[in-house]
Amino acid sequence: MSQPNVLLIFTDQQRADTIHAAGNPIIKTPHLDRLAAEGVLFKNAYTPSPVCVSARCSLIYGLYPHNTGCFDNGYPMPDDKPSLMELLSRAGYRTHGIGKMHFTPDSHALRGFQTREHQEEMRARVEDDDYLKFLRANGFDHVYDPFGQRGEMYYIPQPAQMPARLHGTNWVGDRAVEFIRNADRSRPFFLWASFIHPHPPFSPPTPWNKLYRAALMPLPKRPDGFETLHTYMNKYQNRYKYRDNGIDNNLLRVMKAY
Known about the structure:
Layout: E1 6-11, H1 30-38, H2 52-61, H3 65-68, H4 84-90, E2 94-99, E3 115-118, H5 130-137, H6 168-181, E4 189-195, H7 232-237, E5 242-243, E6 246-247, H8 249-257
């Protein structure tokens, strides 16, 4: 049997309740629903870590955080272990990565990829980021936060600063399609298409920012007695998302409207 091509579609910070097929009757995710219907849907899958870099590290090295030594976004990934991409390269695969990888300590490291097209979430020089080069070539080099404003606006819904055709989500999808169409048919490929969203900031382009009616969206679920919570996150992040006396009701209303 010939070696199959492998396409890994990776979204960032997307819980099961953001997928219609996983039990949310309001959300519209027809393409993910089709994947779930035609493939295998795991309904009891849990990430080995709730933190981005640590979870990605466990994915590519096949180890729990206590074995990789990577517990948080500030921890370096191991250099003494073979990654999934490296093992696939040894097996004869053409390995390519598109989009956010969030590798540490060097976000531009290959980590076993033979080639990459960079689109990292944090600010970078245009010369170091393929997506920023794409924006510049299309006249959008003036955009300061192409994935949405951070800081106090981090969790606040906001419109995208570019049309849908130039949005970061579209860019990853378009680049992935082009790679697959132009792939060398004489050897198998492993393609990791990594999307930054739905990780905040929440900044979808038109018409996707008007897909839902606020009146039909339920409020986020909150634990009993949330009004009395003095959250550690409030002091740690110092963001509008939390208030000293718990979660801000007004912010929840804004998120519902979004």
